Amino acid sequence: MKDQLQALEKEALQKVEDASSLKELQDVRVAYLGKKGPITEVLKGMGKLSKEERPVIGELANKVRGQVAEAIDSKKAGIEAAELEKQLAEETIDVTLPGRPVPTGGPHLLTSIVEEIEDLFIGMGFEVREGPEVETDYYNFEALNLPKGHPARDMQDSFYITDDILLRTHTSPVQARTMNMIKGERPVKMICPGKVYRRDTDDATHSHQFTQIEGLYVDKHVRMSDLKGVLDRFAKQMFGEDREIRLRPSFFPFTEPSVEMDISCKVCNGKGCSVCKKTGWIEILGAGMVHPRVLEMAGYDPKEYSGFAFGMGPERIAMLKYGVDDIRHFYTNDIRFLKQYHQA
Ligand code: DAH
Asked: How many Å apart are CA 252 and CA 260, to the nearest integer?
């Protein structure tokens, strides 16, 4: 039995030695140390041995088992280390390889233009305000001197939600809201950018949703020349110091007098071309002196206070500045269009 155990030990150790994978090693463990393995078998037959032999064989069998187990464990550690080594070698990362480019976004042209206009007016002491896109008929029309049934309401075909609530057709209601809130406590000098909605059929120059920036300055002694000075500065900073502006008489119910502002055409330098429709001038925005009734409705005494207001479309400004020929480009998000205006 002793010889048998020693032979088993030799055989098992050889198999451990020959094993080249964890799987083979596990097979050896099961074969020699498992419940049905030969060493267990030997131990089971110990009952037949004499009293003297039993402890000797028992000790030897345990020793053999211990040695085989130890050999398996150390071989296992060796194989695992070698496998890890192999994996590390195979998966080596070449940190000097150039990375894959990660496409990054950038501000939308419209966002950039709005921010540029905001910065420009902030520089002239205006604050930036916001107002609701779902507006009441009162603020959108009535508080701006457009009572129900006023023909000028038809100029702005509206999306009504109820009889009294609509999607704002312009950012002018924020004028009335702001004046109402401040009520003469301090001068109001604000601009308000935001989305507006009109029941227009979309084409190259119209969109049912677009952007406006409203401006308002109310204080004691605000004059038309203040309006002209602010707009002139705006036009020059936006389109170039060589641009001229011109104010033409116009009509808006919330301003009196009302004007429209043109800038001299950059393409032909005032000579007349297709961009300016042969006039040498391009229309940019509407403006005027805040109508006394509008001031009054907002709680100001028009004998003491005066103000100017203006409204412009940043899409139009961007179209003129960058030669964009279709307003729909701003909303369809064709990546080829958007990319042209990233400074990244
Ligand atoms: N709200 C006008 C529009 O949507 C634009 C406008 C014109 C605003 C004159 C003004 C203004 O504040 O004074 O057509």
From this structure: 10
Rounded Cα distance, 100 and 332, in Å: 28
CA-to-CA distance for 195 and 139, rounded, in angstroms?
A: 16
Q: Taking every pair of C-alpha atoms in the chain, what is the biggest distance, in angstroms? A: 129
pLDDT at 314: 97
Looking at residue 344, what is its pLDDT? 47
- Judge contact between 188 and 218, C-beta under 8 A: yes
First to last CA, the chain: 84
Q: SS3 of 27, please?
A: helix
Q: How confident is the model at residue 284 (pLDDT cuts 50, 70, 90)?
A: very high
Q: Which DSSP category does 162 fall into?
A: S
Tell me, in angstroms, the distance from the centre of ligand 1 to residue 311's CA.
Answer: 4
For the segment 37-79, what is each residue's pLDDT rounded down to a tens digit?
887 777 777 788 888 888 888 888 888 888 888 888 888 888 8
Left if phi > 0, otherwise alpha if psi is -120 to 50, otherwise beta: which for 311?
beta
The pocket around ligand 1, CB under 6 angstroms, is made up of: 170, 172, 214, 252, 255, 286-288, 309-311
Q: Measure 135 CA to ligand 1 centroid, in angstroms.
A: 16
Q: How many CA atoms lie within 13 A of 336 on its CB side?
A: 0
Helix (H, G, I), strand (E, B) or coil at 165: strand
Amino acid at 11: E
* Angle (nearest 5°) at CA 175 between 169 and 176: 95
* Nearest atom (ligand 1) to Cα of 288: 13
Report CA(276)–ligand 1 centroid distance (Å): 22
Q: How far is the CA of 310 from the centre of ligand 1 (A)?
A: 6
In the reported structure, the alpha carbon of residue 46 is separated from the centroid of ligand 1 by a whole-number distance in angstroms of 109
pTM: 0.73
The position carrying tokens 């990319």 is: 339
- Provide CB contacts within 8 A for 88, sequence distance 6+: none
Query: Which atom of ligand 1 is found nearest the CA of 215?
Result: 12
Residue among 121, 216, 224, 252 to mutate when testing ligand 1 (max atoms within 8 A of CB): 252
